[in-house]
Design brief:
By secondary structure, the chain is α/β, with parallel strands linked by helices. The protein has helices at residues 11-23, 36-45, 57-62, 75-87, 102-115, 129-140, 159-163, 179-195, 283-295, 298-322; strands at 2-7, 26-32, 52-54, 68-71, 91-95, 119-122, 147-153, 200-207, 213-221, 226-232, 241-245, 248-252, 261-264, 270-272. Residues 3-119 form the Gfo/Idh/MocA-like oxidoreductase N-terminal domain.
């Protein structure tokens, strides 16, 4: 198994470690956290022993007990942490989006090529078998494709804190947060993988007092159809995601975490399409990322990186169209 270091001691890092254990793809050897107590609590919660702990990033990346790092810190920290990892010749798996803007993304791309390491953006949902089912359906019926509406809105557990007068990272421009860069990145991945590169991008954002987008509507214009995306962290939505094929419609119960896929026919009859989904949605990405690294599968890596490049460019174009500026945009 590939030796793994992690940055971030939250639920998503635990889920990735659990997936790695279940699939025997990565072996956790080192944890970084700002405090030793928090890192130790995380390790204890995993019921693991002989795990090294660091509270200094230079020391962490200078260690030789892991060769791949999984980064799940706030968005604004992805660039500096991934850059430092690459400079120490570590493979990087970084939560999406991997950068705050395309300038940062390009720097990481160039540095990874120079160092000969992998830089993988962890778009886990496009690796799941249930998404592959959707992808196959779209490819089979592409000649009938007439557009899509993708919805992913979920009331954030941090929004009440924001309403009380605080500014959690996810609602701060300092940390490159907001609806588009949190939930919206899933939906943009949907569009890029299923439909390709759009011709035009426009984002209408509903701004909060912190200057961040609490929700918004993103429109992607293609040659002969449009994709309309609805994202939000300040309200709950139960709208399905729909992909249109003339008289037929493919229905997904969620734009970011698909659990059910159905087809609505010309007479509005609905037929569920058989799919499979793991209890841990990170199982598939863990297996695939480990395979790419172990087999040095450059073709598969280039395909995933191509998706990531398009997604990060679209996110920035969307922000610019809405006038949404991050602190990271002003630092260089």
């Amino acid at each position: 198994m590939i030796s793994l270091g992690i940055i971030g001691t939250n639920w998503i890092t635990k889920q990735f470690v659990d997936a790695s254990d279940e699939t025997k793809s990565f072996k956790l050897t080192h944890v970084y956290s700002r405090t030793e107590a928090k890192a130790q609590l995380f390790v204890d919660d995993l019921s693991k022993s002989n795990i090294n702990i660091s509270t200094d990033l230079e020391q962490f990346f200078g260690s030789t007990d892991f060769d791949t790092v999984y980064i799940a810190s706030p968005n604004s920290l992805h660039f500096s942490q991934a850059k430092l990892a690459i400079e120490h010749s570590k493979n990087v798996i970084v939560e999406k989006p991997s950068a705050s803007n395309i300038r940062e993304f390009t720097i990481l791309d160039q540095l990874a090529h120079q160092k000969g390491v992998f830089l993988i953006e962890a778009a886990r949902h496009i690796q799941e078998p249930i998404f592959k089912t959707v992808q196959e359906y779209v490819e089979t019926n592409r000649d009938q494709l007439t557009g899509a509406t993708i919805s992913y809105m979920k009331y954030s557990s941090k929004f009440d804190d924001f309403l009380s007068g605080n500014t959690p990272n996810v609602f701060s421009t300092n940390f490159s947060g907001g609806a588009l860069y949190d939930l919206g990145v899933y939906t943009v991945y949907d569009a890029v993988v299923l439909f390709g590169q759009p011709e035009d991008v426009r984002y209408q954002a509903e701004f909060l007092s912190s200057g961040i987008d609490g929700s918004g509507t993103l429109t992607l214009n293609y040659n002969d159809f449009d994709v309309n995306i609805i994202v939000g962290k300040t309200k709950n939505s139960f709208l399905p995601t729909e992909i249109y094929f003339g008289k037929k419609t493919l229905l997904l119960d969620n734009g970011g975490d698909i659990t059910k896929v159905s087809e609505a026919g010309a007479k509005k009859e609905i037929t569920e399409i058989p799919t499979t989904k793991s209890d841990n949605p990170m199982d598939s990405e863990s297996v695939e990322f480990a395979r790419i690294i172990n087999e040095n599968d450059q073709a598969a890596y280039d395909k995933l990186f191509g998706y990531a490049r398009k997604v990060n460019r679209i996110l920035e174009q969307a922000r610019m169209s809405a006038g949404l500026v991050f602190k990271a945009d002003k630092e260089y």
